[in-house]
Design brief:
By secondary structure, the chain is mainly α. It has one domain. The protein is built from four helices and two strands, in the order αβαααβ. A two-stranded antiparallel ribbon has the order 1-2. The chain is globular, with a radius of gyration of 13 Å.
Length: 93
């Protein structure tokens, strides 16, 4: 998945309406977070964490204090990207 996301953010030039910009910013940051042992909450876009994503990303039982689950965050961002494109808040390339 890491290589896919790296290609996605470097090859596809997404645009977005203002409300979709946080999703694009989070998407572009994913390759830098993936594979790291520890990612802190300040390194992610917590505004995207809605519903059960907040619990899964910030307070999963296996997490060390002060860290986030970057794997869950990656799926949260991809889900938000999908929603953004369906609502036409993003520009398809």
């Amino acid at each position: 998945m890491r290589s896919f996301l790296k290609l996605l953010v470097t090859v596809v030039d997404f645009g977005a309406a203002p409300e979709g910009l946080p999703v694009l910013k989070a998407l572009k940051s994913l390759p830098h977070l993936m594979g790291r042992k520890k990612v802190g909450p300040a390194e992610i876009g917590t505004v995207l964490l809605t519903g059960s994503w907040r619990r899964l990303v910030l307070s999963a039982p296996h997490l060390e204090p002060g860290t986030v689950d970057w794997k869950a965050y990656a799926f949260c961002v991809l889900e938000q990207l999908h929603r953004m494109l369906r609502r036409r808040e993003g520009d398809d390339p």
